[in-house]
Amino acid sequence: MQRDYLTYVSYEKLIKIYEFHISKYEVQTENYYSFEMAKLYKQVAYLIINTGNIEKFKEAESYLEKAINIVENLFYTSQDYVELYCGIYYLYSIVFEHRGNIEKAYRICVDAIHDISKKKYIFNSSDTLTRQLYLLTKDKDIIIDINKTSTTTDLFEMFQNKRRLFQFYLQMNDSKNATELQKELETIIRLLGKKLDKIYVGMYYKDMAKYYFLTKEYDLSKSYFKRAMSLFNSFKFEGQKKMLLLDNEQYRYEIIDT
Per residue in 165-185, is it b (16+ CB within 10 Å) or e — as a string? Predict the structure, then answer.
């Protein structure tokens, strides 16, 4: 299934679709260690995690451990394999981060990055894992360095790198650097078009609400807040909705018509 589908269907419906395909194919021995099965396990875990329903994270953990069992027993050297490997361990780290086990979440990323280096893959797709290290440690040098040294040409990875740096500037009340970066983000978002999942569109709206509040453009700030709230409500992104309210406490007691 293509990433584009995520822009049109609710995550809960997609989870059921992926679980149907998994139940259909995992009973076939020849598919058990297949690259495609690992992708299915990773994608359904991604969807579960992005619903923000912590109670279901155990299911995501189970799917990710199945995916890990596959990728650790495959001997591919392609770009797709490295990206899948990093994506699986990134999500696995998130599961433990949300349980409050920051030490294990950190170790998962460090070990995965080390394994990539040890195996000497000619493709380096560690931005995903390194960004997670930044989120776990809050070490500003990590996110600044990623944006200076990254060689990725993947638009989504570029979006994620710049989005995290944009958030850092907002936290520092650095409107000058945030403004320069926001222009770059807008360009990338236009290039991505419908390939950008709705959850990331909503998170960008959340950041823009904070950005315009920082620049004292309050009408625009409230407008982006409402857009984010509407999207999160529509797709039942409860975790992101909570983050939106925490980041924009000035609006949380208002009645928003979404």
Answer: bbbbbbeeeeeeebeebbeeb
Q: What does the block give as tokens for 208?
A: 């823009």
For residue 77, how many other CB atoms are within 10 A of its CB? 11
CA–CA gap between residue 198 and residue 78 (Å, rounded): 28
Residue with tokens 């299915």: 40
Structure tokens at 55: 């109670």
Identify the residue whose tokens are 């696995």: 92
In a 10 Å sphere around its CB, with 0-12 CB exposed, 13-18 middle and 19+ buried, how is residue 46 labelled?
A: buried
What is the overall mean pLDDT for the chain?
86
Q: Which residues contact 201 (CB under 8 A, 6 or more apart)?
A: 189, 231
For 205-232, write each residue's pLDDT tens digit: 999 999 999 999 999 999 999 999 999 9
CA atoms of 94 and 104, how far apart (whole Å) = 10
Distance CA 247, CA 35 (A): 39
| Predicted structure pTM score | 0.85
Question: Three-state SS for 74?
Answer: coil
- State whether the Cα torsion 212-217-220-221 is positive or negative: positive
